[in-house]
Amino acid sequence: MTDTARTTEAAGAANVTDTADLRRTVERFWATAEAGDWDACADTLSDDVVYTLPQTRERIRGKERFVRFNREYPSGWELRTVRVVAEPGQVVTWLRFTVGAEEMHAISFFTGDEKGNIATMTDFWPEPYEPPASRDHLTALTERY
Question: In the chain, where does DSSP find H-type helix?
Answer without folding.
Answer: 3-16, 19-35, 38-42, 63-72
